[in-house]
Q: What sequence folds into this?
């Protein structure tokens, strides 16, 4: 299964969510996206985006480097 990694460290709102949306559009159903960011608002914005697109947040981990999201692309049509 393919995993795409997106390093958005240092970017501020709204860039992390916009770049995550763009990356999700390129994925096929079942593929995964790993997003690393440092913007504290991302813990609100990215899960909201994923809810809107119908995809699924597999995990959210806070590390010393930032916040790491693992997202699975939905199998059905999404935004």
A:
């Amino acid at each position: 299964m393919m995993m795409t990694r997106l390093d958005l460290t240092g970017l501020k709102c709204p860039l992390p969510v916009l770049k995550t949306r763009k990356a999700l559009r390129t994925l096929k159903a079942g593929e995964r996206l790993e997003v690393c960011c440092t913007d504290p608002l991302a813990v609100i914005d990215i899960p909201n985006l994923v809810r809107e697109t119908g995809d699924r947040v597999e995990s959210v981990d806070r590390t010393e480097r930032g916040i790491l999201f693992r997202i699975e692309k939905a199998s059905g049509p999404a935004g």
